[in-house]
Each structure stands twice: as C-alpha cells, then as structure tokens.
Amino acid sequence: MKIGVLTGGGDCPGLNAALRGVVYRAHTHGHRTLGFLDGWKGVRDGLVRPLELAEMAEIVGDGGTILGSSRTNPFRTPEDVTKVEATLRSSGVDALVAIGGDDTLSAALELSRRGGKVVGVPKTMDNDVNGTDWTFGFDSAASVAMEAAERLRDTARSHHRAIVLEVMGRHAGWVALATGLAAGADFTLLPEETYDETRLLDHVRQAVAARGYALLVASEGIELATSKGSTGEGDQFGHELLKERGVGSFLAKRIEEGTGVETRSAQIGHIQRGGPPTLFDRLLSLRLGAYAVDLIQEGRFGQVSVLRGEKVVGVPLEEALKSPKIVTRDWIHLLHTFDA
Ligand code: F6P
Do 35 and 48 touch, CB atoms closer than 8 A? Predict the structure, then answer.
C-alpha cells in the first residue's frame, strides 16, 4: 500500500513524532508513505513527496512539522473538490492519515463521507478534541506557559506589581487551567466561566495585601463584558484570531484602574507552539501515529486513534468531532480550591 499523511491546522510539539510513528509502523507492515505538504493544501494542490525511514531518524524531539501546515479547507469550492480527487488519484495513495485538530479532522470526515479511505490522529495544544483523554501538544505548550508564569512571578514580586499572563487555547481553557494550577496563580480566567470583574479585583487586592504582588492567568478566549471583542476576521474554517483581542492587556488596565496596583501583562502567543515536545507528548504522538496505520491495516477507515485511559483505541471521526471538549466542572472545582 501507499499511505499518504498530512499535518494540518495550527502546529504543535509532537507532530514530527507522530509522523515517525506513521512512517515506521507503515514500514513494518510493508507499506510506503507519502507526505502531503502544508496540510490539506498539499492534497488540494498536489504537493506531495515520499517519506523515507532515514528522514524520521532524528525528528522525534523536533518542534513544528517537517511537512508544513496550513489552515486550508480543501472542500471550500467545487473546484477544490475536483482538485482533491485528482491529487488522490494521481498520487496513487491507497489511504490517508490526517493529523490535526477539529478543522483538519472535519475535512477528513468530509473525505470519508465522499468515499475516501482516511483515518485521523488528533493533535492540538488546545486539548479540545473530543473522544480522547489528551491531545499531544497540550502538555508541551502548557509546560512553556507554566514556566512563563513562574518567570513573571519573579518580576512581579520584585516590583510589587500585578501581572497578567495571556495564554492561547481558543474557546477551551485547558492551557490556562493547567498553567494557573501548576504555577499557583492567584486567579485564572477561563472561557468556560463568566467574567466576574469584582471577583478578579478582590483576588488581586487580597494577594497584594498578603504577599505584595499578584499573578493572574487569562485564556485568550474569555468573554469580556465590553465592546473589546471580535476582530471580524476569520480563517478558512471561520475562526477569528483571538490574539488580536488582547485580553491580557485589557485586564491589566482594568486591574490597575480598579485597584491602584501597578499592573503589566504578557502575551506569549506562538512561543507556546514551538520547541521540543515533552516526554508525555512524544510518547502519545508516537503511539497515536503508529496506531493510525494499524487502523488502516485493519480497514477501519473513518476512525481516529485516541487515548482512553492507558490504551490507544480507534473511535469514529464523528465522535471526535461531536463538539469541542471544554474544561469540565471537576477541574474548575479544583482550580477554585486554590483561589478560595
Ligand atoms: O488552535 C491552536 C491555536 O494555537 C489556538 O490556541 C490559537 O487561538 C490559534 O491556534 C492561533 O492561530 P494562528 O496560528 O493561525 O495564529
């Protein structure tokens, strides 16, 4: 068999490890692997090249993706559909592995519904794909954010300031939650909760009274009761660039005005998405990538390899795409145990 593979959507640590899992497991089954460049764009525009074992030798710990990525929706127009079908025919791939988040996997589902032999591998630093306990990329990104928060604590303490760290996560607050918990923030703002400014300011006042500074973590996707919101611009899947909303700097201003405490903010943005994957993410990526090929081997098309407890299993793409996985009540309860 010839197995095609692509990495789509926002990159994250672990993509290269997942590719290694795909290529090596394909090799053990006696199959060849072709890589499509820049996500679904490569399938639409016929950008494809062979992937050899030798190329996989040293990439397990490399950030980014050697295949490149994009946020291309390959089924946007009837012309695009024709081009996708032509590439799949001309490249001679028998089956495709789509590695990506909601958008990339929703395109995989569309292809599957059109009769394509495709399986998925979930990835995203946002950790918001349904059907899997964790996505790779999240542990690495949140670890970077945790370290950033700890650095901000040092300088906040020296200057007796409040500092707000804004982290990514789109409309799921997993990165903010993990960062706030792991760095011991005084208050963490999640998109899953209603913005409560009185509570925020109270926590800043209490922290400053107790220790002389305050550390806050905010998810980029929180809804503020203000006109500061949508930029109106979206990508090919209709998502706006939340970074442009600048919730961290907005909150810093409100805190300073409301409490009189000198306040700064930091937005670490794409720094969270680069760098080597953590041990956890490397192992998860390798396992999910390899298992995706097993799904193909067993003819279980339209499925996605996911982590359930200790095990990697296959579930239908529909299940992974049900609705984004947002932070659950038990986690929110734990978070508020520490900012009581
Ligand atoms: O989906 C992953 C993510 O990093 C989000 O957390 C963030 O909102 C978005 O991508 C940023 O997108 P881009 O890389 O297109 O700026």
Answer: yes
